[in-house]
Amino acid sequence: MEIERKFLIKKLPEDLSSYAFHDIEQGYLSREPVVRIRKEDDKYYLTYKGKGLMAREEYNLPLTKEAYEHLRPKADGKLISKRRYLIPLEGTKLTIELDVFHGDLEPLIMAEVEFESVEEADAFTMPDWFSQDVTNDRRYHNVNMVYGE
């Protein structure tokens, strides 16, 4: 089960270059159900996501580079390219995943925070550098951004 909230950002952290990051490329093979392929640095995945906005089923299966390259041209819509910074949230065990989008979705910047329970997600107070909670706004879910919705 994936439980996450999504946020738009007011400003980037000043020390962004000091955080670990992953370069991600992903595309979608299906919208319903959501089936995604992803290249994260030198690792490859096929992901199934169930219905829902803040909480939903998610299964990640490893792919080989060859399988990813075979499936990549079959992706619908545009491919998403982004750099994901991993920012520990001070005083908690949470990590902010800050996505800086490239290509067609530039200059979009969004943050995601994953939680262990819906109660923990509901109780979360966003840092002051976040601007707006877009968890329930379907336009900000990657699958919908690919299709231009």
CATH superfamily: Hypothetical Protein Pfu-838710-001
Number of helices: 3
User: What general outline do the C-alpha atoms trace?
Assistant: globular
| Stretches with pLDDT under 50, minimum 5 residues | none
Q: What is the terminal-to-terminal distance?
A: 25 Å
User: CATH topology, which one?
Assistant: Hypothetical Protein Pfu-838710-001
Q: How much is the radius of gyration in Å?
A: 15 Å
* Number of DSSP-assigned strands: 10
Q: SSE order in H/E notation? A: EEEEEEHEEEHEH
How many domains make up the coordinates? Answer: 1
Any guess at the CATH architecture? Beta Barrel
So what's the CATH class?
Answer: Mainly Beta
Helix content: 10-25%
Largest sheet: 10 strands, antiparallel
Q: Structural class, please?
A: mainly beta
Beta strand %: over 45%
**Mean pLDDT across all residues, rounded?**
94
Secondary-structure blueprint of this entry?
Elements (H helix, E strand, L loop, with lengths): L1 E8 L10 E11 L3 E7 L2 E7 L5 E2 L1 E6 L1 H7 L4 E13 L6 E8 L6 E6 L3 H6 L6 E4 L8 H5 L3
Antiparallel strand pairs: 1-5, 1-9, 1-10, 2-3, 2-7, 3-4, 4-6, 7-8, 8-9
Q: How would you characterize the overall build of this protein?
A:
- It is a single chain.
- By secondary structure, the chain is mainly beta.
- It is built from three helices and ten strands; from the N terminus they run E-E-E-E-E-E-H-E-E-E-H-E-H.
- The protein has helices at 65-71, 118-123, 142-146; strands spanning 2-9, 20-30, 34-40, 43-49, 55-56, 58-63, 76-88, 95-102, 109-114, 130-133.
- Strand 8 and strand 9 form a beta hairpin.
